[in-house]
Amino acid sequence: MTRLLPTQDRSVYLELVNTLYRQSPPIFLGNAAVAGLTIFLLWKEVAHAALLGWAAAIYLLTALRIVLVWRDRRSLGTAAEASASRRCWRYVAWAGVSGCLWGAMGLLFFSPDNTIVTVYICIVLAGMTGGSVASLSSFWPAYYVYALPTVLPFAMRSFAHGTHLFSVLGVLSLFLLGVNLAYSRVIQRTVRDAIALRFENNALIRQLTEEKERAEQANRSKSQFLAAASHDLRQPAHALGLYIATLRTVAQAPHIEPGMVDMLAGRLQSALTGMSQLLNVLLDISRLDAGVIRIEKRRFGLQETFTLLSNQFAQVAAAKGLLLKVRPTTAWLDTDPVLLHNVLANLLSNAVRYTENGKILLACRRRSNDMLEICVIDTGVGIAADQFGHIFHEFYQVQNIARDREQGLGLGLAIVQRTAELIDARVDLRSAPGKGSCFSLHLRSLRDTRQADIPPAFVAPLVVASTAPDATVLVVDDDKQVLDSMQILLRSWGYKVLAARSLERALEALDAADDDARRPDLVISDFRLAADVTGIDVIHAVFHATGREVPAIIVTGDTSPQGIALASASGYQVLHKPLDPQQLRAAISQLLMAD
């Protein structure tokens, strides 16, 4: 009981000690009352000197215990465990002394020939031991050291007397003592369990309260984000509508100015890119939630990543008049280079976005033989210390009241934090308003510089065939506009297209097609179709109808973690809406060439 216990057990132990102290007043009151009653009833039955001496010892001991308990209770609430333990065992020692004084009645006043004295001693000893069970059992050693010296002297004296009557009294005393000791252990376990349950309930209440507050905060943040995202999506959608109206006007004009259509196409692409960026950020968060991001570690030189980042951000930084400096490094890592690149790219993107003048530095330094710190340092607006705990939360932005899309959506650092956890890296921040920020990524490095084990993670883009392949593609999507636009695009690339808006119509289209088209070379299906049918069901049905497996692509606009996880678990290539036409064309070419 006195050894150091786990946190919750220590709290239970301290509360048991508190309970022991809280229940002391009835004990002291009972001691004083019974001692006074004993003097009154036994005054004519026993020697006055022995009676008064015994009673004086009881009162003195009770007074001392009152003072000690009062003093200890004042400091027990804030006392450390070791201090509380000492006080507890001091209380136990005084309880043992009290038990010895009450047990002395059985020796000092033992009168075999005086029935009144004998009966009174039996009543007092039984009452004191029975009445103290509830008060002292919260810490059972206190009851043991009190009850044993209270009862045993009278029991032994009764057995020593030798008569049948006193032998029976001795046996009854021991029996009653045993019952009380056993009952004390039961009470102690009951009290302990009740206290432990109370602490568990309090912990659950705190946890539920915290979870409720987090859920409410997340709900408020997401509500704010949805309002902001709605605004951000409306802007490029509005621009798309205006550009389309302009394109129709140009198409109806008797003369089209050179370059006008190309210019409008570029503006349309720019507006679409803005929408895609927002949706891709949401997709990144959903993929993290779904746990479908695969970690592919390899050995590579960090300079390889630094070079790619330098090429990626040098022009963007220069456009704002910023100096981007990338310090060369010879460090080598054994981690996922793609995820590391994504983390650093997000940090550099933020640095460029929030730095109006000055410079940005990307560098690394070795912290120990196997630990590396990669830093992104800027001279931007900086972040106040009271915001450090919030900026890594989803949808949170320190300042973007005007919802300027150039300032992002408040998801970049959330993605950084969660992606860094995937590669066992730690993100730190040092910043001051008006002076800039330093984001540090701490991760393990290699001590040597051996060659990478596999080819570089960043490969050149897939080369799309310059001539249209002679292939048939089955496209299934329940949205008519999407289906029509997909047909037009694929046919413009030279593919034969079978289009259907459901699984049943896809099978009908296959049956009605000529012999060559009946066995499509590729299936492209939307993931969520009507009547709870999925793209996976379509692909399996086509396989069964044609008698062979053909390459397949699943296209989805579902950004829920469950939907992403289900689509990714299918084993087919998954592309997310809105589709990048070049990405789609590259994926089709790759699958057809591999088939």
How does this model look, in words?
- By secondary structure, the chain is an alpha/beta fold.
- It has four domains: 7-207; 222-290, Helix Hairpins (Orthogonal Bundle), CATH 1.10.287; 298-444, 2-Layer Sandwich (Heat Shock Protein 90); 472-594, Rossmann fold (3-Layer(aba) Sandwich), CATH 3.40.50.2300.
- The chain is 60% helix and 11% strand.
- It is built from 18 helices and twelve strands.
- It has helices at residues 7-22, 24-42, 48-76, 81-103, 105-108, 115-131, 133-136, 140-161, 164-252, 260-290, 302-319, 337-353, 412-422, 480-492, 503-512, 535-546, 561-569, 581-594, and strands spanning 298-301, 323-326, 332-335, 359-366, 371-378, 426-432, 436-444, 472-476, 496-500, 522-526, 552-556, 573-576.
- The strands form three sheets. A five-stranded mixed β-sheet has the order 2-4-5-7-6. A five-stranded parallel β-sheet has the order 9-8-10-11-12, sandwiched between helices. Strands 1-3 form a two-stranded antiparallel sheet.
- Strand 11 (552-556), helix 17 and strand 12 form a beta-alpha-beta unit.
- Helix 4 (81-103) packs parallel to helix 8.
Chain-wise SSE layout:
Layout: H1 7-22, H2 24-42, H3 48-76, H4 81-103, H5 105-108, H6 115-131, H7 133-136, H8 140-161, H9 164-252, H10 260-290, E1 298-301, H11 302-319, E2 323-326, E3 332-335, H12 337-353, E4 359-366, E5 371-378, H13 412-422, E6 426-432, E7 436-444, E8 472-476, H14 480-492, E9 496-500, H15 503-512, E10 522-526, H16 535-546, E11 552-556, H17 561-569, E12 573-576, H18 581-594
Parallel strand pairs: 2-4, 8-9, 8-10, 10-11, 11-12
Antiparallel strand pairs: 1-3, 4-5, 5-7, 6-7
Helix pairs in contact: 1-4, 1-9, 2-3, 3-4, 4-8, 6-8, 6-9, 8-9, 9-10, 10-13, 10-17, 11-12, 12-13
